[in-house]
Amino acid sequence: MSTLLTQLELGPMFRALMRNKIGALLIALQIALTLTIMVNAIFMMQERSQQMARASGLDEANTFYLSNTVFAQNYNLKTALQQDLQRIRQTPGVVDATQINAIPLSGGGWSMSLQTKAGDDIEGTGTAVYMVDEHGINSMGLELIAGENFQNSDIGWREEGSTKWPPKAIISKALAETMFEGDWKNALGKTVYIDNHQPVQVIGIIKALQAPWNGWNGVERSMLVPQQLDSKGSRFFIRTEPGRRDELMPVIEKMLAESDRGRIIRNVNSMEQTRDESYQEHQATNTILLTVIIVLTLITGFGIVGLAMFSINRRTRQIGTRRALGASQWQVMRYFMLENLLISFAGVILGAAGAIGLNIWLVATFEMSPLSPVLLVIGVVALLIVGQLAVSYPALIASKISPATATRGRA
Amino acid sequence: MFSYYLKLAYLSCKRTWGMTLLMVCAIGLGIGASMTTITVNYLMSANPIPQKSEQLFFVQMDSWQPNDPYSDDGDAPTQLTYRDATYLWQAQKAKRQTIQSGMAAVIEPADKEVLPFMVQGRANSADFFPMFDVPFLYGSGWDHQADLKKERVIVINAELNERLFGGKDSTGQTVRMAGEDYKITGVMDRWNPKPRFYDISTGSFNDVEEVFVPFSLITEQKFDRSGNTNCWKPTESGFQAFLDSECIWVQLWVELPTAQDKEAYFSFMNAYAKEQNQYGRFARTDNNKLRDVMQWLEYAEVVSDDASMMMAMSLMFLLVCLLNTVGLLLAKFLGKASEIGVRQALGASRNDLFIQHLIESGCIGLAGGLLGLVLAILGLEAIKVMYGDWIRDLAQLDFTLVAMAIGLAIVSALLAGLYPTWRACQVQPSVQLKSQ
Predict the structure, then answer these.
(1) Tell me: the pLDDT tens digits for B42-64?
(2) Which phi and psi (to 5°) does residue A164 adopt?
(3) Full 3-state SS string of B221-259
(4) What number of CA atoms fall less than 13 Å from residue B60's CA on the CB side?
(5) What's the domain count of chain A?
(6) Does A369 lie in the same domain as A253?
(7) Where in the cell is it found (chain B) (predicted)?
(8) Which of A45, A193, B228, B421 is least enclosed, having the fewest CB within 10 Å?
(9) By C-alpha distance, which of B332, B325, B399 is closest to B365?
(10) Over the Cα atoms of chain A, what is R_g?
């Protein structure tokens, strides 16, 4: 061990570092701060990416929706709705269409609380509510994994201001799991209660369907109820054959707008567009964080290059002397590489402590989750590599210093 | 002497241009990133109505269910039930008060060639306009009588006036909205407070609405409500049942000029809660709140977590850039040791040397600051593109921010330059001259 230490010149190296404490300290501090920021920024990016990667349960590539706002007086909403749906469904290229009260991930919707027992003081489970007809599952491209779909006879009208709920519902697997202690299959056929007292039977379970609010911790919990809205403002959700969505969006908008002048067709949006808008902030924040990490690493790297160049310039004569006394080029290079490793090591240890500290503060202030240790290890290794890469060029230059320099006058 | 030092700084920077460039870039990037995030935070936490923010109060009453408080921290709900809000409004106990909710309706232009379109609006009371110092291009708001008599009156914004009337004075004319004619009492001038403090329930930085109508019309079901509605108690079907329900969806602002006014109003609210408690409502009678504009915005956390987190990150980033600069300047000044020795030997005092090097670091700081300013402008543009429309007004540099950026740059550079400069002045001329 002691021979190895002597071989690696750690003793003289340490003494040399002590003579230029400030320079070494500055690099170590820079590395420490870089690690602190880098690890936490990557962690924040990971959290957002995971949120964005969650499946909505919809056939996003082939679905779109539009808002239908009626302004004419004495308008027969019920007849018009049936006519509209029929027209849309008959359009070539359309797979299916339904009326719906809210759009997943759009930010606006309806939520209710479901409970397994009736009563006023029973704690319930919050869920998003989608009102659809028997075409709902097919129009959204949902996967029914247990039970059955609604029948045409199940569909009722929901008058404006009504607080009555239909007796049947289809719920998402995540909602079933929350309500029935992880055993989602158990939910099928059970009666649950909505609005504290009204019984609803679970007739089907869908694999996934996200709520309208992406930031809600219950975003995977949703339910379908067999109702059509008797309302002046409604939405149609439409699914097309693969690849025909963009072509059909303007066609259907025009068809509906022209068929009836007593209403406005607006907000014609694809589901993909809605997802992008929904996660726009997440996406932007991730881009900024990535830029910060890259620029920060570059600055630290170049800082190391600059300081190493300087210290080599100042020590040209000593290096020449060492070379003249028999040190090989490789030994000179190794000296500077090792010196950087020593400094970087101090930096990453300090930085690891800083990263954990910053994470504790972030957790306390912004309700973030704690950092994973694996990420910290990756960050440490990455920065040690960056340090070695940065110092390799100056070290190479140092190794090229000719032994003859020792004999010349100026340092 | 100053210009001579400037020349020396120029020559020195030119000689070690790589290092100088690195320092300028480091300071520039640090300042650019910090200024970008500081700007967004500064504008998010701005006072949208500084002249009277301390006299305007947001009323919160805890009508929420007895077993489970509305929010995790136990605070009162952020909206009121219709019956509580109208009771407080009708009492007219404050200097001014406005009851409000969002609305939306379809406007049918007189010109039949133009397609009908949807507008976002606000249903509020007459006091809304004088209370919030709303500027008018033409006319004014309506009066209290119009509220009581449920008159079909409307205030439209300048953009809508442009669209419907080509920007001419349209007061007295009518607009066809939701199937009825509304008489225009005033056209609002451009007004877009950020945050939109008077209603942040659907987004703190939304734009001001296009139309304003008396709140009393909303209860006549003349048009659709918009905004959030939260209910905890099952209710019967029908609109009247909804109005009588425990659902919260109405907001109330009051203007109370003095501390005594505030105290009096607060006891009035609490007395009302106590009285309601006797009928089985208001389980928590002393959990009512009267917050002024800035207290309310702070409580509602309008500055997004992302924005504060980014600011913390970017300030640490600036610190890294400064450490970088300290190291490089140190290297640079110590590299000039022999030159400093010669200058000292030729009679330059330590003071002279100190000023000379401080000017050199100041110049680097100034260059970095200017670069930072350019980067901040680019950064804000990027933020506008990436975050979308709502951030538009929150990503603009004003004079204060520009001055702050330059100040920050120079202070940073001088701080970074201080230690290296001091070290440079410690050079012993004899040692340097001997080694020549």
Answers:
(1) 888 889 999 999 999 999 999 99
(2) -90, 140
(3) CCCEEECCCECCCCCCCCHHHHHHCCCEEEEEEEECCCH
(4) 22
(5) 2
(6) no
(7) Cell membrane
(8) B228
(9) B325
(10) 33
pLDDT > 50? residue B164: yes
pLDDT score for B191: 92
Residue A60 lies in a domain: no
CB contact under 8 A, B308 and A366: yes
Give yes or no: residues A229 and A353 share one domain.
Answer: no
- Same-domain status, A87 and A154: yes
- Where along chain B do its domains lie? 2-45+304-434, 56-299
Mean pLDDT (whole number) for B386-397: 79
Judgement on whether residues A249 and A285 belong to the same structural domain of the protein: no
Closest approach of A143 to chain B, Cα-based (Å): 31
Query: B7 and B351 in contact (C-beta within 8 Å)?
Result: no
- Largest Cα–Cα separation, chain A: 105
Q: Tell me the residue range of the domain where A187 lies.
A: 72-261
| Chain B interface test: which of A26, A35, A260, A397 (most B C-beta within 10 Å) | A26
What Cα–Cα distance (Å) separates residue B429 from each residue in A252, B337, B349?
A: 86, 9, 11
Look at strands B153-157 and B80-81 and give their pairing. unpaired
- By residue count, chain B amounts to 436
Q: Is residue A49 part of a domain?
A: yes
pLDDT category of residue B433 using cuts at 50, 70 and 90: low
Same domain, A322 and A215: no
Among the candidates A210, A226, A261, a domain finishes at A261
A229-to-A95, A161, A238 alpha-carbon distances in Å: 22, 10, 17
Contact A306 B22 (CB under 8 A): yes
In this complex, do A164 and B237 lie within 8 Å of one another by their Cβ atoms? yes
With respect to residue A393, please indicate whether it lies within any of the assigned structural domains: yes
In residues, how long is chain A?
411
Same domain, A255 and A160: yes
Phi, psi of A240 (to 5 degrees): -115, 170
Round to whole Å and give the CA distance between A321 and A342: 23
Distance from CA of A55 to the nearest CA of B (A): 23
Pick from A22, A288, A340, A397 the residue to mutate for testing the B interface (most B CBs within 10 Å): A288
A222 and A336 inside one domain: no
Q: How many CB atoms lie within 10 A of CB B435?
A: 13
Q: What percent of chain B has pLDDT over 70?
A: 99
Has residue B93 got a pLDDT over 70?
A: yes
Sort strands B180-188 and B153-157 into parallel, antiparallel or unpaired. parallel
Q: Which chain A residues are Cβ-neighbours of B224 within 8 angstroms?
A: 232-233
To which H or E segment does residue A244 belong? none
Tell me if B328 and A362 make a contact (CB, 8 A cut-off): no
Q: What is the pLDDT of residue A105?
A: 93
A163 lies within 8 A of chain B by CB: yes
Question: Which of B37, B29, B75 minimizes the C-alpha distance to B306?
Answer: B37
**Of A197, A228, A261, which marks where a domain is finished?**
A261
**Terminal Cα-to-Cα distance of chain A (whole angstroms):** 35
Which of A29, A266, A302 is the closest to B118 by Cβ?
A: A266
A155's tokens? 């569909």
B345 to chain A, closest Cα gap in Å: 19
